[in-house]
Specification:
The chain is an alpha+beta fold. It has helices at residues 16-37, 43-67; strands at residues 8-14, 74-81. The chain is built from two helices and two strands.
Length: 83
């Protein structure tokens, strides 16, 4: 390996209960939005719409829990260099 390479490791904390609740909320929201606005579309539009809404709502939920609720679902505890 190189002597001056940038190699770091990190300690990440994941709250499984809060992340699971965020995933369930995001899935429910995605199904609700698909049921209300995606009537009569092709199956591939349902899949793309579901994945897009799921991703955006999951990201938004995790950002809200980390930023406003002060109870993070995903937290970076420390980052340190490794030899």
């Amino acid at each position: 390996m190189t002597e001056n390479g940038f190699r770091y490791a990190g300690w990440f904390l994941l709250d499984v209960r809060l992340t699971g609740a965020a995933v369930i909320f995001s899935v429910a929201l995605a199904v609700l939005i698909l049921a209300l606005w995606f009537r009569g579309r092709r199956w591939d539009e349902y899949v793309v719409g579901f994945l897009a809404v799921l991703g955006l709502s999951l990201l938004g939920t995790l950002l809200l829990t980390n930023g406003f609720a002060h109870y993070p679902a995903l937290q970076v505890e420390s980052i340190f260099p490794i030899p």
